[in-house]
Specification:
Chain A: Keywords: 2Fe-2S, Iron, Iron-sulfur, Metal-binding, Oxidoreductase. The structure holds 2 protein chains of 2 kinds. By secondary structure, chain A is α+β, with helices and mostly antiparallel strands. Chain A contains 5 helices and 5 strands; from the N terminus they run E-E-H-E-E-E-H-H-H-H. Chain B is built from 19 helices and 31 strands. Classes of the chains: A alpha+beta, B alpha+beta.
Chain lengths: 159, 776
């Protein structure tokens, strides 16, 4: 066993002081050390995007980062998306448009789309497809995911 | 809810939102990997395809289990009682011999996942390599070594069929047309890999196995048998399952090892497969050679069909279906939706030194349809017929229809769905556009694929295969509690299809409450009646039928109780909007009051018995969904790349219980079919080493590659299922490879290309172009 390092992970506004091996991925630390299992791990080599979280507002693969690299940074996960029990427009749109089936990839897609729409609210439909192509879904054939994100983008712009 | 839903009075038929979603979109889904364990395991896997284990050297102090330690654990030995089946043993851990790259040889137990992986890397395997067999044709070649000594010729399942008078019909035909099809290996690739958590309860002595499976009850039966414990000592839970697509319906040796370990260590142990393990060692599919010949009359009528099917089934036969599932389904269903009376087939399943094969969405029918639809296009070209006309002349139009292999097709719409798809395609307009584009060296093509999809079949169908275990029936326990809420406990076990919602809609119509008041419980052998899980597009049909029957029983009792409470004839009562109402009056009682009376005023209904709990079972003969897929592609002859311009599905799955969910299933299936047609392939080199071990090598399509899919529904209501619904989970994956590969051939027709292989990768298209001699 390698020596552990103390790290402070700020997840959805809550501070988690954890002691992790330097090789521990951020995904594992979020899930296992901080108990936030909504973030999923699908490939551990950065292709599927199921583990996508926001770090300082930017979508990142938490399987490709070490927990020590996220020390002190603001991390947002799917558990922090709904506010005060009210679903985020993206969550509502995924439900309304049947943008999920098994739901395993869904947290990654939600965080990817949140990060993009917050930074670029007027993103074009074509560019959205481009962005969403960074994550994999095996159930939906993407069509309803794209529909959901476009619907949420519209709602976020008008609200 | 979509606009037209407002006209529908029943819950069945409406696109209501899924009850599954709120947890999954807020991070509160519960997957196997979310459970913490006391110990973690990692599997040491064979780095070579074939060899004898000479020595396993363990790092000092580590806890490592090998086959020698698994005292009393029986090997997996799936059984079939027909078709010259040779049973072969599949040890949970390799026992002296390794037969494929990735086969588990040892299991390491440690305090953390990382430590387990570290130790696994330090385990040294000394394996004396033997020449591997990778390809099915090589495995049946003269002098090929035997993968298993029990099967010296490597053929472990073989079927032959030939209808009487076949030879006479064959020789009378005007034209024989032949196609050689190759369907390469694919991985079902659920986003959540396999995972298992086995916990020992020191009080009861029971073990709870939480695992990512499609059939928890059968896992319990199989694992208890292999480990040698009573079934009641094992509880299997399938929590949220992150996709299965068939890959998670077969017994996986790793889960057996986990249960054995939990029992031995008297604690909880966990394993989560990584993506590399999933790609190299979790069931593959599709790997088939098919030679299909059609004997046609000069007017294009198909008179006879002759098929040779060679399926590479990998190193072991899978449980419970056995390896026969691909070759024998091909044999039984090859004639597809076409009316052909004379049929001959020789189908074989061959063992090789590759990862075992198991059912995957569509099971064999993507290959059958590819072969048949390539044959139709080639015959049309040979006989100078239109690609639609040749199909019109051969599709089955009268029902019920008994196929050459004895399958009985219920009412379907092969012809109608094709006409809908063809009209949407606008072939005359397309041909003009195609001709114009060719002038600018742009190559467009159209492709059609019409198919039948056998769904929702019960025990007679499985018994006909000679299966040791004949799945088919389902049981549903349904109770309305005293507050009027309903719980349906089902043996089916979905993995993302939205079955909880679909079944709640069926119940809601019967007992007059909102679907939100219906909870469907699944995936826990302690909480649900024995059942076979979810596979073969069966759940909406079979579990749906059992649910309907159980709900009707509860309904009947509610009506009788309400009748007495309201002093009306039960026939005069209607159940809707949460109330029991006397028709044509303003007299009513809320359903919960009726329910409460059933429990707490049972003295008034002694003849009916107390409470509102009913059980029903259903075991249908089966039904056939159908569809026509029509596609327009553009092939870039410089790069060999294919772009899908339009994708049309005209689908008939009988009554649609939730159209939104049905369309979602079609979208997902088509995406996997497109992957099969153009991108995904597990590639072995000649030594049996897999070259596609990451998602950067194995190319699952993204939102860029999957087009918008235009869906047209027909609803031919079948009398052969209780809900009039037919299964549709697999259809999308069945039609896409044939439609797309036909379209590529159409696009490249100026070059006289013959491409009969899936996936049609840029490299293969390029090779075909170069071989045509008409492209430079």
């Amino acid at each position: 066993m390698t020596k552990k390092t103390d790290v402070t992970l700020n997840i959805n506004g809550q501070t988690h002081n954890v002691s992790v091996e330097p090789r521990r991925t951020l995904a594992d630390a979020i899930r296992e050390d901080c108990g936030q299992t909504g973030t999923h791990i699908g490939c551990e080599h950065g292709v599927c995007g199921a583990c996508t979280v926001l770090i300082e507002g930017v979508p990142a693969r938490s399987c490709l980062m070490f927990a020590v690299q996220a020390d002190g940074k603001a991390i947002r996960t799917v558990e922090g998306l709904a506010e005060g029990g009210k679903l985020h427009p993206l969550q509502q749109a995924f439900m309304d448009c049947h943008g999920l089936q098994c739901g395993f990839c869904t947290p990654g897609f939600l965080m990817l789309a949140t990060g993009v729409l917050e930074r670029e609210p007027d993103i074009s439909d074509e560019d959205l497809v481009d962005v969403l192509s960074s994550n994999l879904c095996r159930c939906t054939g993407y069509q309803n995911i794209i529909k959901a994100v476009r619907m949420a983008a519209e709602q976020m712009r008008s609200s | 809810m979509s606009a037209h839903d407002h006209d529908i009075k029943t819950w069945v038929g409406r696109s209501i939102r899924r009850v599954e979603d709120p947890a999954l979109i807020t991070g509160r889904g519960r997957f196997t990997g979310d459970l913490a364990a006391q110990r973690w395991v990692s599997f040491v896997r064979s780095p070579v395809a074939s060899g004898r284990i000479k020595a396993i050297t363990l790092p000092p102090g580590a806890m490592v289990i090998t086959a020698a330690d698994l005292d009393g654990v029986k090997p997996i030995r799936p059984m079939l009682h027909k078709f010259n089946y040779i049973p072969i043993s599949h040890p949970v851990l390799a026992d002296g011999v390794v037969r494929f790259m990735g086969e588990p040889v040892a299991v390491v137990v440690a305090d953390s996942e990382e430590d387990a992986e570290d130790i696994a890397e330090q385990v040294e395997l000394e394996i004396e390599e033997t020449p591997p067999l990778v390809d099915a044709r090589a495995a049946i070649g003269e002098g090929a070594p035997a993968v298993h000594s029990e099967a010296p010729a490597n053929v472990i399942v073989e079927g032959r069929v030939k209808t009487p008078g076949f030879d006479d019909v064959w020789t009378s035909a005007a034209q024989i047309v032949s196609v050689d099809i190759r369907s390469r290996r694919q991985n079902a690739l659920p986003l959540e890999p396999r995972g298992a958590h086995a916990a020992f309860d020191s009080v009861s002595g029971r073990i709870t196995l939480t695992c990512s499976t499609q059939m928890p009850h059968l896992m319990r039966t199989a694992i208890a048998d292999l480990v040698g414990i009573p079934e009641s000592d094992l509880r299997v839970i399938a929590p949220d399952v992150g996709g299965g697509f068939g890959q998670k319906m077969s017994l996986t040796p790793e889960y057996v090892a986990l249960v054995w370990l939990a029992r031995r260590l008297r604690m909880s142990v966990a394993w989560t497969e990584d993506r590399r393990e999933n790609l190299i060692a979790c069931f593959h599919s599709r790997d088939q050679y098919v030679t299909l010949q059609g004997a046609f009359a000069s007017d294009g009528k198909l008179l006879a069909l002759s098929a040779d099917v060679l399926a590479n089934i990998g190193a072991y036969s899978c449980f419970p279906t056995t390896c026969a599932v691909e070759p024998l389904m091909a044999m039984a269903e090859m004639p597809g939706p076409y009316d052909v009376r004379a049929y001959a087939c020789h189908a074989r399943g061959v063992v090789t030194n590759t990862c075992p094969m198991a059912p995957y969405r569509g099971v064999s029918r993507p290959v059958i349809t590819l072969a048949l639809e390539r044959l139709m296009d080639k015959a049309a070209k040979t006989l100078a017929l239109d690609l639609v006309d040749i199909r019109r002349r051969n599709l089955i139009t009268t029902f019920p229809y008994t196929s050459a292999t004895g399958l009985v097709f219920d009412d379907a719409s092969y012809r109608e769905t094709m006409e809908i798809a063809v009209e949407a395609l606008d072939i005359p307009g397309f041909r003009q556009r195609q001709a114009e584009a060719r002038k600018h060296n742009r190559y467009l093509g159209i492709g059609l694929a019409t198919f039948s999809e056998r769904t929702g079949y019960g025990t007679p169908a499985f018994a006909a295969r000679g299966m040791e275990i004949t799945p088919g029936w389902e049981v549903v326990d349904l109770s309305m509690d005293p507050s009027g809420r309903v719980e349906a406990r089902i043996g089916a076990s979905p993995h993302g299809q939205g079955l909880r919602t679909t079944l709640a809609q069926i119940v809601a119509d019967q007992v007059g409450v909102d679907p939100s008041k219906v909870t469907v419980v699944h995936g826990d052998t302690d909480r649900t009646p024995y059942g076979f899980g979810t596979f073969a597009s069966r759940s909406a049909v079979i579990a749906g039928g059992a649910t309907l029957l159980a709900a009707r029983k509860v309904r009947s009792k509610l009506l009788q109780i309400a009748g007495r409470l309201l002093e009306a004839d039960p026939d005069e009562i209607e159940l809707e909007d949460g109330a029991a109402k006397v028709k044509g009056t303003n007299r009513f009682l809320p359903v919960e009051q009726v329910a409460r009376a059933a429990y707490h005023k049972a003295h008034l209904f002694t003849d009916l018995g107390p409470g509102l709990s009913e059980t029903a079972s259903y075991d249908p003969g089966g039904t056939f969904s159908n569809a026509c897929h029509a596609v327009i592609v553009e092939v870039d002859v410089e790069t060999g790349g294919v772009k899908i311009e339009r994708y049309i599905v005209a689908e008939d799955a009988g009554r649609l219980i939730n159209p939104m969910i049905a369309e979602g299933q079609i979208h997902g299936g088509v995406a996997q079919g497109i992957a099969n047609a153009l991108y995904e392939e597990i590639i072995y080199d000649e030594t049996g080493n897999i070259l596609t071990t990451t998602l950067a090598d194995y190319l699952p399509p993204t939102s860029h590659e999957i087009p918008a899919i235009e869906i047209f529904h027909l609803e031919t209501l079948t009398g052969d299922t209780l809900t009039q619904a037919k299964g549709l989970g697999e259809g999308g994956a069945i039609g896409a490879p044939a439609a797309i590969i036909n379209a590529i051939n159409d696009a490249l027709s100026p070059f006289d290309i013959t491409l009969n292989e899936a996936p049609a990768t840029p490299q293969r298209i390029h090779t075909a172009l170069q071989q045509s001699g008409k492209w430079s």
